[in-house]
Design goal:
Layout (H helix, E strand, L loop, with lengths): L13 H14 L4 E6 L3 E8 L2 E8 L6 H4 L10 H31 L5 H4 L12 H14 L13
Helix pairs in contact: 1-3
Length: 157
Amino acid sequence: MASSRYAQDTEVPSDRSRAEIEATLRRYNATAFGYGWDTGAATIMFEIAGRRVRYRLPMPDPYERRFTHTEARGLPRSQPARDAAYEQAVRQSWRALALVIKAKLEAVAAKITTVEEEFLSSTVMPNGSTVGEWALPQIEAAYQNNTMPALMPGGKS
Protein backbone atom coordinates (compact mmCIF):
# COMPACT_ATOMS: atom_id res chain seq x y z
CA MET A 1 0.00 0.00 0.00
CA ALA A 2 1.49 3.31 -1.08
CA SER A 3 1.56 6.09 1.47
CA SER A 4 0.11 9.44 0.58
CA ARG A 5 1.30 12.84 1.70
CA TYR A 6 -0.91 15.44 3.30
CA ALA A 7 -2.50 17.68 0.66
CA GLN A 8 -0.62 16.00 -2.18
CA ASP A 9 -3.54 16.71 -4.52
CA THR A 10 -4.47 20.13 -3.17
CA GLU A 11 -5.72 22.79 -5.52
CA VAL A 12 -5.24 25.57 -2.97
CA PRO A 13 -2.79 28.11 -4.45
CA SER A 14 0.36 28.88 -2.46
CA ASP A 15 -0.59 32.52 -1.99
CA ARG A 16 -3.88 31.47 -0.42
CA SER A 17 -2.04 29.19 2.02
CA ARG A 18 0.28 32.08 2.95
CA ALA A 19 -2.75 34.31 3.52
CA GLU A 20 -4.33 31.57 5.64
CA ILE A 21 -1.17 31.35 7.76
CA GLU A 22 -1.23 35.11 8.27
CA ALA A 23 -4.94 35.07 9.19
CA THR A 24 -4.35 32.18 11.60
CA LEU A 25 -1.52 34.07 13.27
CA ARG A 26 -3.74 37.15 13.66
CA ARG A 27 -6.51 35.01 15.15
CA TYR A 28 -4.07 33.65 17.75
CA ASN A 29 -2.76 37.15 18.61
CA ALA A 30 0.51 37.32 16.71
CA THR A 31 1.80 40.89 16.68
CA ALA A 32 3.89 40.85 13.49
CA PHE A 33 4.19 38.83 10.27
CA GLY A 34 6.59 38.84 7.34
CA TYR A 35 7.23 36.76 4.25
CA GLY A 36 10.09 36.50 1.78
CA TRP A 37 11.68 34.07 -0.64
CA ASP A 38 14.89 33.23 -2.44
CA THR A 39 15.83 30.61 -5.01
CA GLY A 40 15.64 27.61 -2.70
CA ALA A 41 13.10 28.49 -0.03
CA ALA A 42 10.34 30.70 1.24
CA THR A 43 10.56 32.18 4.72
CA ILE A 44 7.83 33.31 7.05
CA MET A 45 8.51 35.21 10.24
CA PHE A 46 6.16 36.22 12.99
CA GLU A 47 6.09 37.49 16.53
CA ILE A 48 3.84 35.92 19.14
CA ALA A 49 3.88 36.03 22.94
CA GLY A 50 7.03 38.14 22.84
CA ARG A 51 8.92 35.58 20.75
CA ARG A 52 10.16 35.95 17.19
CA VAL A 53 9.70 32.83 15.12
CA ARG A 54 11.07 31.95 11.67
CA TYR A 55 10.19 29.06 9.38
CA ARG A 56 12.19 28.38 6.25
CA LEU A 57 10.14 26.33 3.82
CA PRO A 58 12.45 24.56 1.38
CA MET A 59 11.23 24.68 -2.19
CA PRO A 60 11.77 21.66 -4.40
CA ASP A 61 14.26 21.83 -7.25
CA PRO A 62 12.18 22.19 -10.45
CA TYR A 63 14.76 20.04 -12.26
CA GLU A 64 14.24 16.99 -10.04
CA ARG A 65 13.36 13.87 -11.96
CA ARG A 66 9.94 13.65 -10.27
CA PHE A 67 9.01 16.83 -12.17
CA THR A 68 10.87 16.27 -15.43
CA HIS A 69 9.73 12.68 -16.02
CA THR A 70 6.53 10.70 -15.56
CA GLU A 71 6.28 8.37 -12.57
CA ALA A 72 4.72 5.42 -14.33
CA ARG A 73 7.01 5.02 -17.33
CA GLY A 74 9.84 7.45 -16.69
CA LEU A 75 9.23 9.33 -19.91
CA PRO A 76 10.15 13.01 -20.22
CA ARG A 77 7.30 15.41 -19.46
CA SER A 78 6.36 18.40 -21.59
CA GLN A 79 7.26 21.79 -20.12
CA PRO A 80 3.65 22.55 -19.12
CA ALA A 81 3.43 19.14 -17.39
CA ARG A 82 6.75 19.80 -15.60
CA ASP A 83 5.49 23.17 -14.41
CA ALA A 84 2.21 21.66 -13.21
CA ALA A 85 3.96 18.88 -11.27
CA TYR A 86 6.33 21.38 -9.68
CA GLU A 87 3.53 23.78 -8.70
CA GLN A 88 1.62 20.88 -7.15
CA ALA A 89 4.59 20.08 -4.93
CA VAL A 90 4.91 23.73 -3.91
CA ARG A 91 1.20 23.93 -3.07
CA GLN A 92 1.52 20.76 -0.97
CA SER A 93 4.43 22.22 1.01
CA TRP A 94 2.51 25.41 1.78
CA ARG A 95 -0.57 23.44 2.89
CA ALA A 96 1.61 21.35 5.22
CA LEU A 97 3.16 24.47 6.76
CA ALA A 98 -0.29 26.00 7.28
CA LEU A 99 -1.40 22.80 9.02
CA VAL A 100 1.64 22.70 11.32
CA ILE A 101 1.28 26.30 12.44
CA LYS A 102 -2.46 25.99 12.97
CA ALA A 103 -2.05 22.77 14.98
CA LYS A 104 0.66 24.29 17.18
CA LEU A 105 -1.40 27.39 17.89
CA GLU A 106 -4.50 25.35 18.69
CA ALA A 107 -2.47 23.17 21.10
CA VAL A 108 -1.33 26.36 22.84
CA ALA A 109 -4.89 27.72 22.97
CA ALA A 110 -6.08 24.41 24.48
CA LYS A 111 -3.33 24.72 27.12
CA ILE A 112 -1.76 21.43 26.05
CA THR A 113 1.53 23.22 25.62
CA THR A 114 2.99 26.74 25.45
CA VAL A 115 4.13 29.04 22.66
CA GLU A 116 7.70 28.64 23.89
CA GLU A 117 7.51 24.83 23.77
CA GLU A 118 5.74 24.59 20.41
CA PHE A 119 7.95 27.04 18.56
CA LEU A 120 11.22 26.42 20.43
CA SER A 121 13.39 25.24 17.54
CA SER A 122 12.13 28.04 15.27
CA THR A 123 12.51 30.81 17.86
CA VAL A 124 14.96 33.45 16.67
CA MET A 125 17.86 34.20 19.01
CA PRO A 126 19.38 37.70 19.42
CA ASN A 127 22.15 36.80 16.92
CA GLY A 128 19.59 35.97 14.19
CA SER A 129 19.97 32.19 14.29
CA THR A 130 17.17 29.96 15.51
CA VAL A 131 17.35 27.78 18.62
CA GLY A 132 17.30 24.76 16.31
CA GLU A 133 20.24 26.03 14.25
CA TRP A 134 22.15 26.51 17.50
CA ALA A 135 21.11 23.31 19.30
CA LEU A 136 20.96 20.67 16.56
CA PRO A 137 24.75 20.45 16.00
CA GLN A 138 25.24 20.11 19.76
CA ILE A 139 22.67 17.33 19.98
CA GLU A 140 24.31 15.53 17.05
CA ALA A 141 27.72 15.80 18.75
CA ALA A 142 26.30 14.41 21.99
CA TYR A 143 24.99 11.36 20.15
CA GLN A 144 28.22 10.86 18.20
CA ASN A 145 30.35 11.15 21.35
CA ASN A 146 27.96 9.03 23.39
CA THR A 147 27.76 11.72 26.06
CA MET A 148 24.03 11.52 26.63
CA PRO A 149 22.56 12.14 30.09
CA ALA A 150 20.62 9.33 31.76
CA LEU A 151 17.20 8.69 30.26
CA MET A 152 15.60 8.70 33.70
CA PRO A 153 16.74 10.76 36.70
CA GLY A 154 19.08 8.71 38.87
CA GLY A 155 19.72 6.24 36.07
CA LYS A 156 22.87 5.51 34.10
CA SER A 157 23.66 7.16 30.80
